[in-house]
Amino acid sequence: MPAKDNLHALFYPETVAVIGASSAPGKVGNTIVANMIGAGYRGKLFPVNPKGGEIEGLAVVSDIADLPRGLDLGVISVPRQFVIPSLEALAEIGAKSVIVITAGFKEVGGEGYHLEQKIIELCDKHGIALLGPNCLGMMNTAVGVNASFAAGHPNPGSIAFFSQSGALCVAILDWALGENVGFSKFVSLGNKAVLDEADMLEYLNNDEDTRVILGYIENVEHGESFLRQARKTCLNKPVIMIKSGTTAAGAKAASSHTGAIAGSDQTYTAAFHKSGVIRVGDVASLFNLAQAFSSQPLPKGPNLVVVTNSGGPGILAADSADRSHLTMAGLSQKTIQRLQEFLPSYAAFYNPVDIIGDADAKRYRQTLDVVAEDPMVHSIMVLLTPTATVEIEKTAEAVIHTAKKCGKPVFACFMGKNRVRKARLMLMEAGIPCYAFPEPAVRSIETMYEYYLWKHRPEPKYARIKGDKERALKVIRKHEQRNEPEIVEFEAQEVLKAYGLPTPQTSLARSSDEAVAAAEEIGYPVVLKIASPDISHKSDVGGVKVNLNDAAEVMSAFKDITARAQRMRQEAYIAGCLVQEMAPPGVKEVIIGFKRDEQFGPMLMFGLGGIYVEIMKDISFKLAPLSYQDAFEIVREIKSYMLLKGLKGEEPVNFVALEEIIMIMSQLALDLPQVWEAEFNPVLVNHERAIVADVRLTLHLKDEQ
Ligand code: ADP
Ligand code: MG
After folding, report:
1. Helix (H), strand (E) at residue 183
2. What is the CATH number of the domain that holds 422?
3. Which of these, 131, 262, 498, 533, could form a disulfide with 468 (CB 3.0-4.6 Å)?
């Protein structure tokens, strides 16, 4: 990352040169100059063009070399072949930051890719903070900088926005102008050759003009710095992001369930979750939340009160609160008594507080003041249906009045469109989010409350797990030398033991006699499994027989399994059978696994095992390292959690034992980067204990790269 001062120079430039400035209206090189002037820029602005002359009343500099040394910002908008020479000339005069508007680089591949590499090299060498290439530009409303070719200037505000898509920047700017929403900084990232989302997060975290950060990203290339910066920033101010454009690239043909199920979208969800980033799916939610977060305090608890002038919408709001993490506040006796003093007897004094269709602004105001004072209330929603008698604008004033003094988040939901238009604007201007329907209002309050909880949760605690790494590495090296990426059950058990993971007693039997001897030693009933380094899905070849109760059964199972496996997999080397302790009846099968993500590292997964994995896809994900809290959550986030908790008087499974296995797996993933994927399927668990009854590890062999 370039020097910090250079980022400051980018956002607060005192000298700006537009390379490729043009006098022809409509040309990008003209729009940028006009935008800088139109935004009220007060620093020194230099249009640069070899043709000289005058642009927008400013004398044109014909050569970059004639610009002042240590220029703060150069904006390059020239044909592609002139970009590198311009950048070199800017580096020559010690320019601190550069925006490359020009497109045709990495995004087109080929020559473009190499040119972009050249940009990166130059910036690395000279410490230049560079935005783009292939971007729309940047705005900082605090100092009248609009170094972009967008149409229009946003108002100053407390929302910062950065986006990987220039088109989305344009759309959002237009929307913001229509809604009167202001921005602190507005950044089009383009190809992110140098500056990326992590740099923006770091910078905006310290930007006093910014209260909320919005981002649109299509990919993250440096997972680790993203996680670090996002986490740091989210503890300070909310970061809300849209992530789109999930590509199939990198989704290699995966050999395990973990690999197949853990698509890159889940990885992003896990990454956002880990760092506290609020992820939304659409632009409308992005803005609803931006407005809510930028203007309202966070709710300090889940209790919502709804004040309404009509029953139906009140019930809709209550229903949608029920489905959320919010609760409808129970009002105190004192509050109810106070309400009874002035509300008509036919009003509803319980939450939702229905002050009836003939409510005027005064009744709204009195009610709001009373409920806002109730300590059981953490957030307030004011619902208004535009009946014939209601005083719409005056009610808006009442809402503003209460919101200003109560210190709790207040949300308005003025239903409809035309008749509430003016009131809505009044509310928005006063910083009170106003919605047309209750559901999105509830969602906004819920998200703010969740962020509040995240921000105030205890510091994550990590376990200190020390495995016998050397012992595990021995097995891994052996496979690497033999060029075998798959480590199947028997040998993989050695790795598990090195990390103290619970495995069923198992021995390898080369003959049916050895199998019987092993079974007697272990104690009946036992399980027999085909033992072959070439067969990793044993059941597929009829290679697993459970519940064998005596010598005769073991003997015949051995013959059966080995003969069938040899028939079905003629090329396979068959070592014999594993004889294994059988888990008691009634155990539940779960799957615990991890898959390595190129950007974000190992991602752990947990779900119901066996056939359910593929059918139900009921899996939850977390990025390593997992804290105790993460392990606690991951086993409870799946839909089938209730099954594990036990149905109809069944005892719950030993969750602590499962969490322990998950924590150890997280450690194993960090200790052994050679292991690309791991899958314990099944882990058999009951109320007493959990054991890893099957395991497969997949190595990342060097020559595969
Ligand atoms: P595969 O290679 O087919 O995945 P597994 O070792 O997972 O083979 O065995 C298949 C199934 O057999 C498991 O899902 C589980 O239902 C059962 N099973 C395997 N080992 C045991 C065991 N030790 N105790 C009880 N059941 C087992
Ligand atoms: Mg299995």
Report:
1. strand 182-188
2. 3.40.50.261
3. 498
Q: Is residue 269 part of a domain?
A: yes
- For 427-461, write each residue's pLDDT tens digit: 988 999 999 999 999 999 999 999 999 999 999 99
pLDDT at 598: 87
Ligand 1 pocket residue status of 582, Cβ below 6 Å: yes
Tell me, using a 6 A CB cutoff, whether residue 529 lines ligand 1.
yes
Backbone torsions φ then ψ of 384, nearest 5 degrees: -135, 125
Q: Which of 684, 689, 698 to mutate to test the pocket of ligand 1 (most atoms within 8 A of CB)?
A: 684
Same domain, 354 and 421: yes
pLDDT tens for each residue of 504-520:
999 999 999 999 999 99
Task: Kindly state whether residue 439 falls inside one of the protein's structural domains.
Answer: yes
Same domain, 171 and 56: yes
Q: Are residues 23 and 143 in the same domain?
A: yes
Angle between helices 333-342 and 361-373 (to 10 degrees): 160
pLDDT at 417: 87
Residue 519: CATH number of its domain: 3.30.1490.20
Tell how far the Cα of 332 is from the centroid of ligand 1, in angstroms.
Answer: 56
Cβ–Cβ under 8 Å, residues 210 and 237: yes
The whole domain housing 286 covers 3-292
Domain for residue 348, yes or no?
yes
Instruction: Express each pLDDT in 664-693 by its tens digit.
Output: 999 999 999 999 999 999 999 999 999 999
* Average pLDDT along the chain: 93
The answer to whether residues 310 and 354 touch, using CB atoms and an 8 Å cutoff, is yes
Q: Is residue 472 part of a domain?
A: no
Matching residue, tokens 């395990």: 256
The domain boundary, picked from 292, 312, 329, lies at 292
Task: Quote the number of domains for the chain.
Answer: 4
CB 330 within 8 A of CB 404: no
263 closest CA partner among 616, 621, 7: 621
